[in-house]
Design goal:
Number of strands: 11
CATH topology: Rossmann fold
Helix content: 25-40%
Radius of gyration: 16 Å
Largest sheet: 6 strands, mixed
Strand content: 15-25%
Order of helices and strands: HHHEHEEEEEEEHEEE
Structural class: alpha/beta
Distance between the termini: 40 Å
Shape: globular
Length: about 180
């Protein structure tokens, strides 16, 4: 008998597949992709216009955002990063002193909170994205809740390795789309 997977099982299967795909990438390929993504991001009108940019600090299996952060700072943009606070994400100014927080994510030691209304652009990670902007996270809903709190006028860009882009991924009513996906 054929078993039909429920939504959570489908998402878990994609997460597992993505983990295998990323594990197959060389460090050189990851660095090259991260730099290419930076090159693509800095040309976007959303980036050019933004004065305050929120961008994540990458884990080992995510696109390295250091090149984007360096470029934003060089252009005089204020850089904000997510800080995990309970079950929420707080946008906080990126400071020099960082420490590992929940889920082994780097975050500023000093929390200089920034209001979501100040954000001009938000760049988010995902385990997978599809061609219509659906985003699959790690399964705890941090970004879905955060994106729901953003003013609708704030563009949200998902970045990932090209092996993380699918034609279509399953989505629930609580899942939030991104406006654009940039991959390399």
């Amino acid at each position: 008998m054929l078993k039909v997977m429920d939504l959570d099982e489908q998402k878990q299967a994609i997460r597992k597949e993505v983990s295998k795909r990323i594990a197959g990438l060389t460090e050189e390929a990851k660095v090259c992709a991260s730099n290419k993504i930076r090159d693509l991001i800095v040309l976007l009108k959303e980036f050019i216009r933004a004065k305050v940019i929120m961008v994540y600090l990458a884990k080992k299996d995510e696109v390295d955002t250091t090149p984007i952060i360096e470029e934003a700072r060089k252009l005089g943009k204020k850089v904000v990063v997510p800080v995990v606070d309970g079950s929420d994400i707080l946008p906080c100014e990126l400071t020099e002193e960082l420490a590992y927080g929940p889920f082994s994510v780097l975050q500023p030691v000093e929390r200089k909170k920034v209001a979501t209304q100040e954000l001009d652009l938000v760049i988010v990670p995902g385990r997978a994205f599809d061609l219509s902007g659906r985003r699959l996270g790690r399964g705890r809903g941090f970004y879905d809740r955060f994106l729901l709190s953003l003013p609708e006028t704030v563009p949200v860009i998902g970045i990932c390795y090209s092996c993380q882009v699918f034609d279509s991924i399953p989505s629930g009513s609580y899942d939030r789309k991104v406006h654009r996906v940039v991959s390399a």
